[in-house]
Amino acid sequence: MKIDVVSIFPEYLAGLQLSLIGKAVDQGVLDLNVHDLRDFTFDRHNTVDDSPYGGGAGMVMKAEPWALALEHILGGESLVGATSVERTVGADTGDEEPAAAGRPILIVPSPAGPVFNQRIAEELSDADHLVFACGRYEGIDQRVIDWSGEHFDLRPMSIGDYVLNGGEVASMVMIEAVSRLIPGVIGNPESLTEESHEDGLLEYPIYTKPASWRDRDVPEILLSGNHGAIARWRRDRRLERTAEVRPDLLAGLNGLDKHDRAVLERFESGDDSVKE
Ligand code: ADE
Question: Does the CB atom of residue 171 touch ligand 1 within 6 A?
Fold first, then answer.
């Protein structure tokens, strides 16, 4: 997968060189490129922002540096001076515009976007090319966002209902969540199958040696060697934990069997006698 990130703080993204994502980049599984938006400005001060039309607080990111950066990522040739007919691939031959699926996906982190989740991470992990446009200040001039929708599959995306100072941290969150789902990025792909959100449930509690620590014992069943019973115990804990911490997730669950429903009913009734 190719990932391009555009930011006025490219150093922010340096953390992606570490750990498993960094290794995937080194091994060529991920082709990650970080671009400095100021490289696409031509005035003495490398200006990327200006005051908002209509007044109001803060500054707005200018359209042109963004268009030039995104065109550079698309493959060089400037589309800005082209006529609308030239911009529409195949318009003069009667061909359709390329399907959205064939275009790079442009993710614009913004608290005003739909909220990113594991399902979207899975969907994005199938893409060939993701581009992240990290806005700062009050955001990016809407005209270049609209323009980008003619060349990219445009996806504004929030990482949660709070406000960050810019899109860099949000992009890193999404890049990490997406990349770890790409085959070859995580050493043991089995570790992806039973983690939180994988199937709509939160993860079961985990333990390591020693079996007894400060008078707290590992649940007996995990020492039993009975794999079927351990799997059932783990699923029960996932159901209970989800019901307790994220009851909103229960509505989206399908494929619950009789035992699952009994566990949830017992939890609802406050009977935790089945835990040990
Ligand atoms: N930029 C500022 N806040 C954000 C958020 N919550 N998600 C994504 N991008 C943002």
Answer: no
- What's the gap in Å between 104 CA and the centre of ligand 1? 21
- Using one digit for the tens of pLDDT, what is the confidence trace for 244-264? 999 999 999 988 999 999 999
In this predicted model, what pLDDT tens digit does every residue of 167-178 receive, in sequence order? 999 999 999 999
Dihedral, 67, 133, 34, 128 alpha carbons, nearest 10: -100
**127 C-alpha vs ligand 1 centroid, how far in Å?**
22
Section 53-70 average pLDDT: 98
- Sequence letter at residue 272: D
The ligand 1 atom at the shortest distance from the C-alpha of residue 157 is 8
Q: Count CB-CB contacts under 10 A for residue 22.
A: 15
Whether the CB-CB separation of 131 and 73 falls below 8 Å is answered with yes
Q: Which of 190, 171, 158 is nearest to 21 (CA)?
A: 171
Distance CA(51)–CA(39), nearest Å, equals: 21
112 lines ligand 1 (CB under 6 A): no
- Decide: 140 in ligand 1 pocket, CB within 6 A: no
Predicted pLDDT of residue 83: 39
Distance, CA 133 to ligand 1 centroid (Å)? 12
Mean pLDDT of all residues in 127-140: 96
Please state the three-class secondary structure of 196-233 as a single string: CCCCCCCCCCCCCCCCEECCEECCHHHHCCCHHHHHHH
Residues 100-110 as b or e (16 or more Cβ within 10 Å = b):
eeebbbbbbbb
| Stated pTM of the model | 0.88
Determine if ligand 1 sits within 6 Å of the CB of residue 30: no
Q: Indicate the pLDDT class of residue 192, thresholds 50, 70 and 90.
A: confident
> Is the CB of 160 within 6 Å of ligand 1?
yes
Measured between alpha carbons, how far is 181 from 198 in angstroms, rounded to an integer?
11
